[in-house]
Structures are given as structure tokens and as C-alpha cells.
Amino acid sequence: MNPTLSELEAQASVERAAFGGDAHIVCDNLVRIYKTEGVEVVALQGLDLLIQRGELVAIVGASGSGKSTLLNVLSGLDVPTAGVARVAGMDLLAMTAKDRLRYRREVVGFIWQQTARNLLPYLTARENVELPMKLAGKARRGRALELLDLLGVGHSAGHGPAELSGGEQQRVAIAVALANSPQLILADEPTGELDSETSAQVFDALRKANRELGVTVVIVTHDPLVSEQVDRTIGIRDGRTSSETLRREDAEGRLVAEEYAVLDRVGRLQLPRDFMNALEMERRVRLELESDHIGVWPAREEPSHEQ
Ligand SMILES: Nc1ncnc2c1ncn2[C@@H]1O[C@H](COP(=O)(O)OP(=O)(O)OP(=O)(O)O)[C@@H](O)[C@H]1O
């Protein structure tokens, strides 16, 4: 029997468990379209992403795949066109200007690739860390030094950025980002301008913030040293999450990495481009359900309609 209108209304009003439940970061079907001079660029095309509280995650992807756009949305700098973006239960599409300011000051900390962009050149390292606390009206004596010490740059407290190496500047930048005890740290290519040894020190500082302060850390990176040492690496392709690499220790204590394709809630997945190229798959594939896997074959040769 068909349901009546009132039954359908009753069904629709039953609250469904939200996607992602209590995940720290929830992106559901996130879309960001840029319009410039009448041309539309779809930078995020229905991206789904869940990150749990306390995770240390790397995001990787080719240039133009949408990584910075995603980070700008999560940092509260940019507002997506559609979909859901929630951090720590706060809805990033529906925030008032006042909430957005508080979010940027207190909930999230940000580290940019360009070392010079993270610090004010005329303040010492310690003053740089104290500044966000003062702006939030929360200055606490000694906290700046504690943070600089934790990240291994306590000796630089009295120096200006120009007197510090690139790696030291980035570690001070992490202290600045941590100043107001944020729940989440976002870092866009934080080791992009550094050599591998210095880059390892900066990554260690981020890991320390994650392990010792319990902060969720999301790093956009091209640096294998970073992406191969986090617990989870998320690959983005064409504005969607396409793959995930999970790392765990096996019984002998060796680090094992397993790569997965991401299956979204309606069943879409992206086949790796090199797999598709190898079998010349285009447009159509044949699927077959087996007892423990699904087979994917190139389409059969199509009959030619040309005479
Ligand atoms: N402000 C903007 N106006 C118009 N198009 C934009 C803007 N910002 C980004 N885009 C476009 O959106 C797409 C995604 O860009 P995004 O910067 O997020 O990629 P990315 O993965 O961070 O790249 P990269 O690794 O080079 O930084 C690209 O096609 C880019 O040209």
C-alpha cells in the first residue's frame, strides 16, 4: 500500500543520524565553484571527508586538484558553494561573521608554506606567539616560552624571524598556530621551502603537537617524508577524495602501508588513471559481482556504425 502524505511527512521529519556522526572534520558533498569573468571553475566537486579528533593526516594530490581550496574552507577563510563542512560541530557554511572570527582565532590554527607569511618580521619569536593570545584577550605569562620549548626553539625566543633559519621559523609558526590552544591545525605545504633534514624537524614538531597536545593535524604536502609518515594519507583528484593510504604496524613491528580507493556513499569510486590507461578503459566498463570481489573489464569492442 502506498504511504499517505502525512506518513511521508512524518518519515521526513524523523531526524536521521548526520553523516560522519561526531567526527572532528566532516565534509559531505562539498562543492566550491569559482567564478571569474564569467568562467566557472569547479574546484571541489562533491568532496566527502571524515577526520577523527586527534588524527594526524596528510592530503596529497596533483597541482590544481583542490587541496588549497579545501584547506581554505576548513580554515574559515573561504565559504563553499554547497554541501556540508563541519569542524568540531560548527557549521562552516552557516557561521555569522562574529562566529567566523572566533573560529579563526580559537578553534583552528594555520601554517602557510611561505615562512615569511607566518610571522611578523618586527616582532621576536616570543612576541609573535604572544600576539594571537593578546588579540583573543587570553595572554598567559610563560605559555609562549612553553610552546617554543616544546617545539625545540626555546633558544630562539628573543630573536626576530630574520635571525632564524627557515626550519626554525616554521617551528615558531607552529607555536603561533598553537597559541590559543586550537583543536585543529591546518598546514599548507609547511615543509615546501625546506631541505629534507630541516623538513624532518618541522614534521616532528607537528607530530609533537598532535601527540602531546592532542590537536588534530591536517597537512597538505608533496613531501614524501611527511606523507609517508602519517597514519593516513588522503589523495584528492579533480576535487574529490580518490584514495586513502592507511599505515599500521604489523606483528613484527614493521610499518605496512595499504592503499584503498575511496567509495562514496552513492557507490562512486575513481579508478586510478594508470590502471585505466593500462587496459584502455574509457567511458564504459563491464562490472561483474563475484562472491568476494567485483570484476571491472574494459567494454567490448563496439560494432562500427560507419559503412
Ligand atoms: N580564487 C580562485 N579563482 C578562480 N579559480 C581558482 C581560485 N583558486 C583556485 N582556483 C582553481 O581551482 C582549482 C583547484 O585549485 P587549488 O589551488 O585548490 O588546487 P591545489 O591542489 O591546491 O593546487 P596546488 O598544489 O598547485 O596548490 C584549480 O583549477 C584552480 O585554478
Overall strand count:
13
| Annotated CATH architecture | 3-Layer(aba) Sandwich
Q: Which runs of at least 5 residues are low in confidence (pLDDT < 50)?
A: none
Beta-strand content estimate:
25-35%
Q: Which small-molecule ligands are present, each listed once?
A: adenosine-5'-triphosphate
Overall geometry comes to globular
Distance between the termini: 53 Å
> According to CATH, what is the class?
Alpha Beta
Mean pLDDT across the residues is 89
Put simply, the count of helices is: 10
**Secondary structural class:** alpha/beta
Major sheet: arrangement of strands: 6-7-8-3-9-10-11
Order of helices and strands: HEEEHEEHEHHHHEHEHEEEHEE
- Helicity level: 25-40%
- Cα-atom radius of gyration: 23 Å
CATH fourth-tier homologous superfamily: P-loop containing nucleotide triphosphate hydrolases
Number of domains: 1
CATH-defined fold name:
Rossmann fold
Largest sheet: 7 strands, mixed
Describe the 3D structure:
The chain is an alpha/beta fold and 307 residues long. It has a single domain, classed as Rossmann fold (3-Layer(aba) Sandwich), CATH 3.40.50.300. Helices cover 30% and strands 28% of the residues. The protein contains ten helices and 13 strands. It has helices at 5-13, 67-74, 97-107, 115-118, 125-135, 143-150, 166-178, 196-213, 224-227, 273-278; strands at residues 25-36, 39-51, 56-60, 82-87, 90-91, 108-111, 184-188, 216-220, 232-237, 240-249, 255-261, 285-289, 294-298. The strands form three sheets. A seven-stranded mixed sheet has the order 6-7-8-3-9-10-11, with helices on both faces. A four-stranded antiparallel sheet has the order 2-1-4-5, with helices on one face. Strand 9 (232-237) and strand 10 form a beta hairpin. The longest helix has 18 residues, at 196-213. The termini are far apart. The mean pLDDT is 89. Adenosine-5'-triphosphate binds at residues 34, 36, 41, 43, 61, 63-69. Adenosine-5'-triphosphate (ATP) binds next to strand 1, strand 2 and helix 2.
